[in-house]
Every structure is written in structure tokens, then in C-alpha cells.
Design a protein that fits this description.
Helix content: 25-40%
Structural class: alpha+beta
Number of strands: 9
Radius of gyration: 18 Å
Order of helices and strands: EHEEEEEEEEHH
Number of helices: 3
Number of domains: 1
Largest sheet: 9 strands, mixed
Oligomer: single chain
Shape: globular
CATH class: Mainly Beta
CATH architecture: Ribbon
């Protein structure tokens, strides 16, 4: 497994080896868009995956301009023979649609100080699927709420809308925290055996 510190080098190397399914790369994350699941500085193992093998809930690595981004898949559609993914960070409500052409691979493992988590197997795979569906639903609710607010109030910000946004964001983050906590409890329980 190669360890890269430079995100651009990672993206270039992964793109060069896209068709070699056993290639894996260790990346260290920067940023907070995947909180609370992936903390800044976490070590993630990325492996090439065919678009057909990527499921809702998987965390994918993809190119955005010259950057390498890790976000969760919350939707997947085929159109004209290509696969498109709806992606978002766990700590955001913003979604984008990306083509299979920019997808480099998926996160298969997260190395922590206490344990290594296999993201694509067992109960972590189930938790990721639930988080993908939940991410889609919470994003949909947020978009509909923002649409209604803009129709009623326009672009004006009021103390009520600011409070509502903060409340919804706090409430929406409770489910991922709960799921991650359950995952860690299972991880400890099964690793003690």
C-alpha cells in the first residue's frame, strides 16, 4: 500500500491505476465535511471500485478540480450508459451530482488509534447504508424547507430562519452520532471475543 501526503499525487496515482482492482492507497484526510464519522487527520484506505459496485452509503474518493474529495454516496442513477452519483459530506446539506468519470475509488478501511474499521463489511456496511439513506432524506427535507422559506421570505435572513437552520442541523446530526456510537459499541463487543 502506498502512502501519499500530497492529494494531487494521490489523485494522479489512482487515476493511472483505475483498472487495477487490487490497488489500494492510504490517504490522510483534511477538512471537516465528513464529521462526525471521519475526523480531520484520519487515515483512510481507498481502493478502486467499478461504478456498478459502489452503493448508496459508500464513501467515495473523487476529483473536484485538482482536489481529492471523500464524501458519501446518497443516490445513484444510470443515464445514457453512464453512472451518476449524488454525493454529500455527512456534515453538510449541500449535494452535487458527479459522473463515474471523476470517481477514483471507495473508502474500504479507516485506521484509528484504537481500532481499524472495515467500512465495506459487517455492521459498518449496514451503518453506512443507513447513513446514506438518512443523508438523502435529511438533504431532501432541508432543500424543501429552504424552497418554502425562499418563497415566503425571499432571500431575507431573520432570527427565526437562522435559529431554524441551526436547530435542524443539530437535530440532523444526532442520527449519525447515534449510528456511529452503535457501530463503535459493536466494534468493541466483537473485538473482545
Amino acid at each position: 500500500m502506498k502512502n501519499f501526503a500530497d492529494k494531487n499525487a494521490i489523485a494522479r496515482a489512482l487515476l493511472e491505476t483505475r483498472d487495477e482492482t487490487n490497488k489500494t492507497y492510504l490517504v490522510q484526510t483534511r477538512g471537516t465535511s465528513m464529521l462526525p464519522f471521519i475526523k480531520e487527520g484520519s487515515e483512510i484506505v481507498i481502493q478502486y471500485a467499478r461504478p456498478i459496485d459502489i452503493k448508496v452509503g459508500d464513501i467515495i474518493a473523487f476529483r473536484r478540480s485538482i482536489n481529492l474529495v471523500l464524501h458519501r454516496v446518497i443516490g445513484k442513477h444510470s443515464f445514457n450508459g453512464k453512472v451518476y452519483f449524488i454525493e454529500k459530506g455527512d456534515d453538510t446539506f449541500d449535494t452535487t451530482i458527479i459522473s463515474e468519470d471523476v470517481v477514483i475509488g471507495k473508502a474500504v478501511q479507516m485506521k484509528g488509534t484504537n481500532a481499524t474499521i472495515r467500512l465495506d463489511q459487517g455492521f459498518w456496511a449496514v451503518i453506512n447504508r443507513i447513513m446514506g439513506v438518512y443523508g438523502y432524506i435529511s438533504s431532501l427535507i432541508f432543500d424543501r424547507t429552504r424552497f418554502i422559506k425562499n418563497k415566503l421570505l425571499g432571500e431575507r435572513k431573520t432570527s427565526f430562519t437562522t435559529f431554524s437552520y441551526k436547530f435542524f442541523k443539530t437535530f440532523a446530526s444526532c442520527v449519525p452520532v447515534l449510528l456511529i456510537s452503535i457501530g463503535h459499541i459493536f466494534q468493541r463487543k466483537f473485538s473482545d471475543r
